[in-house]
Automatic annotation (TrEMBL):
Entry protein name: Acetylhydrolase
Keywords: Hydrolase, Signal
Keyword Protein biosynthesis attributed: no
Species for this entry: Gluconacetobacter sacchari
Pfam families to which the protein is assigned, alphabetical: Lipase_GDSL_2
Residues of the SGNH hydrolase-type esterase domain: 65-242
Range of residues in the leader sequence: 1-26
Coiled-coil ranges per UniProt: none
Gene Ontology molecular functions: phosphatidylcholine lysophospholipase activity
Length: 263
């Protein structure tokens, strides 16, 4: 009786022992390349629905796609450091542009949005401007090596849907959050500059970090976060710094859209 019970127990123990190393060595899933919804967040849900309605109703040549830095284009002061909307109007108001920026989004949330309606334009846009990745180094906490394939999936999803559309990918802006964030920002931008354009002639990459830097280092005065009450770590450009970003990319934007340079 004892032997008949002991043999199966030994067999099970052996199987668990053999399986344990494989389970322990299995790499965790890379969240940066998954599709993750935020529809359970009320304001995000509302904004997504509003943007879906706008996509269905309009014609767009230029699409800004990203996180809160992109969403900030819709802010209207009253303080000068967060009065972004006039700059957007000057650079993009006559260009059939739409703002698809969502505060707090990382690559996984953008991938969900693209798969659930944010590529359902009636006609192919001529240009996507993408700024994403800063939040991967925040609450999602995926490092540069894991964030990079999330970004490649985003640009490739756009190209698969719209083969004639050009994509302008902006490097992740420097910030003043932590040494880990700064190191991964530099590493990711180096990877983007060195590799992501290979085999993607429709993709343009531009580093606009100088808009928030002085002498090659992030300048707190060029971020709006220190103006907040209470202040936050410098991450989001002021309206003036974001205007500088618009100026920096304007030659590429104007060339792709085939119109005059805006100032």
């Amino acid at each position: 009786m004892r032997q008949s019970i002991r043999r199966p127990l030994l067999a099970i123990t052996t199987l668990l022992t053999l399986a344990a190393p494989a389970a322990a060595s299995a790499a965790p899933a890379n969240l940066a390349v998954q599709q993750v919804s935020r529809m359970d967040t009320p304001w995000w849900h509302r904004r997504f629905a509003e943007k879906q309605a706008a996509i269905a109703a309009g014609r767009y040549d230029l699409v800004w796609l990203g996180d809160s830095i992109t969403q900030n284009w819709e802010r209207t002061g009253p303080e000068p450091w967060r009065d972004f909307a006039p700059v957007w109007q000057r650079f993009y108001g006559d260009r059939h542009a739409i703002n698809l920026g969502f505060k707090g989004d990382s690559t996984c949330h953008v991938l969900w949005r693209l798969a659930h309606g944010e590529l359902d334009f009636r006609t192919p846009p001529r240009l996507f401007v993408i700024m994403i990745g800063a939040n991967n180094f925040g609450h999602v906490h995926t490092d540069a090596a894991r964030t990079y394939p999330g970004i490649t999936r985003i640009v490739d999803a756009i190209h698969t849907r719209f083969p004639t559309t050009q994509v302008l990918l902006l490097a992740v802006l420097p910030s003043i959050r932590s040494a880990w964030v700064s190191a991964n920002t530099r590493q990711l931008n180096t990877m983007l500059e060195a590799d992501i354009r290979q085999g993607r002639p429709w993709l343009h990459v531009q580093d606009v970090g100088a808009a928030v830097e002085t002498h090659g280092a992030p300048d707190p005065s060029r971020f709006l976060d220190p103006h907040l009450t209470p202040p936050d770590p410098p991450l989001h450009p002021t309206a003036a710094a974001q205007e500088e970003i618009a100026r920096m990319i304007e030659p590429t934007v104007a060339a792709i859209l085939g119109d005059h340079r805006h100032k």
